[in-house]
Structure formats: C-alpha cells, structure tokens
Amino acid sequence: MNDLKRSKSENKLIITIILNLTISIFEIIGGILSGSLSLISDALHNLSDSASMFISLFSLRVANREKSSKNTYGFKRAEIIAALINSILLFITLVYIFYESIQRLIHPQEVSSIIMLPVAFIGLLGNFFSAVLLFKESQKSMNLKSTFLHIVIDTISSVIVIVGGLIIHYTGWFYIDPVLSLIVITYVLKEGYTIFREVVHILMQGTPADIDLSQIKSRLESIPGVENIHHIHVWSLNENERYSELHALINCQTLNEMDQLRDQINRVLRNEFQINHTTIQFEGEKCKITNI
C-alpha cells in the first residue's frame, strides 16, 4: 500500500479500535448484570480483537519503514507476523470460551434476557459499522483481512446472542446460552485456521497457492532461445509481493540476445504470474557469446 492508502487504513483502524473497546465495556457490564456467558464471551472476543487491532496498527507503521543494509527486504513482513499473532490470540480466546461453555452446560445459570438483549443489539450495531468501515481495506492486506474477519465474526456473534436472548425470553431455556457460544467458536475456529494456515505458508516461503511451477516451466521454455528451465523457486514476501529465482539453459549468440531473453522472462513472470522480482541464473553451454 502507498503512504496515502496506508494513512487512510490507519485512521479507519483507530476508529474501529475505539469503537470495539466501547462495545467490550458495554458487553462486559451487561454480561455480568444479566449472567449471560454468550454476552461475556462476545465481550472477551471483542477485547482480543482490540489487541489484534493494536498489533495491526503497529505493523502498518512498521511495514512503512525504509529498507536498510540489515533489512534488505524492508519491514513488509511485519503485517504477516501481525496476522500470525492475531490468529494465535484468537485461538487462546476460543479455548477459554469453550471451557466456560462446557461448564455452563453442566451447571446452567439463569440469564436475564431483559438486560442481555439491548446490550447485544448495541454490540451488533457497533460491530456492523466497524465491518463496513474496514471492508475495502481488508481487500488490500492480509493483516487487515484478519482484523476484518474478527469483526465479521463479532457481528455474527452479536446476532447469535440476540437470537439466544429472544429464545431465553420466550422459553426460559437457559441452555441455549452456552450452546450458542459453542456454535460461535466452531465457526470462528474454522475461519481463523484458514488465515493461520495461509500466514504460516508465507512465512515458510511456500509456493503461492495459485502458482503452478510446471506451468511456469512450460511457458518459459516456449520462449525462443530458452532450452530448459530448472531450480525454480517462487515465494511471497507478503500477500502482495512475489519473488522467484530460477536457472535457465539458453541458446544465444550475443550479449544483446541474452539481455532480450532476460527481459522476456521477467515480462512473462510479471504479467502472467504476478511475480514482482526475479533472479535468473543463465547457463549458456549452447551459447557462442560475442560482445556484439
């Protein structure tokens, strides 16, 4: 992201943090007064999201720092590391909510729907506004995507809490509170694991999911003058920048032809495979290179 877009993302993130903390305070108070575990679970999830947003905000600022001789790639992976930390925080929160839900199933407690419902509705409005605020930004960054996912899950969680409050109000069935909490954490776990797996794949320098190395090899070998492509490596620095390195056995006559082959290979990788930077090692056993 450029500086202007990054500044807009930071401002929206700050507003979302303030809003999220306010919702958390309301839900904690409401959860204690009403005795609702699902409301307290939602509040704790919101608090963990606030911590995640602080990490996201910090990483956005770190990622904008210039590269140096000690950090030749710059700090662009700060956002990926933030997404990893956010995922871990999410899993820790889920373990706690799961434990509390099981305890409530074994020992159900009375819940006051009169308090639970209006608090949950306030939480829903706040979460929905936050989700709308960060929607566009989430399309540009995995870090912000993970934060956006937290908020979407909070919004869904608020809806579930409201449904639970209505069921308790009209039926008095208190078991619905921990049952709904278990439903929420099952969904959160599924979505959170998807981001966690993608982040780890990037940190392990895995080949991007939409890249087929055999397809790259075949396409590059179709370029006249390229005899063979091997030792191909493609990895992501973050979700926006891809790097590659490869060996190319070529057949050319002049240094100018070699330069043209290099340009063609780079152009194909950039335009057809969205690979931003490539290091090519030429092998010219079949070349009779002259300085022409």
UniProtKB/TrEMBL annotation:
Pfam families: Cation_efflux (PF01545), ZT_dimer (PF16916). GO terms for cellular component: plasma membrane. Belongs to the cation diffusion facilitator (CDF) transporter (TC 2.A.4) family. SLC30A subfamily. Signal peptide: none annotated. It is found in: Membrane. Residues 208-283 form the Cation efflux protein cytoplasmic domain. Keywords: Ion transport, Membrane, Transmembrane, Transmembrane helix, Transport, Zinc, Zinc transport. It is a multi-pass membrane protein. One of its GO terms (molecular function) is zinc ion transmembrane transporter activity. The chain crosses the membrane at residues 12-37, 80-99, 111-135, 147-167. This is Cadmium, cobalt and zinc/H(+)-K(+) antiporter. Gene3D superfamilies: Cation efflux protein transmembrane domain, Cation efflux protein, cytoplasmic domain. It comes from Atribacter laminatus. Residues 13-204 form the Cation efflux protein transmembrane domain.
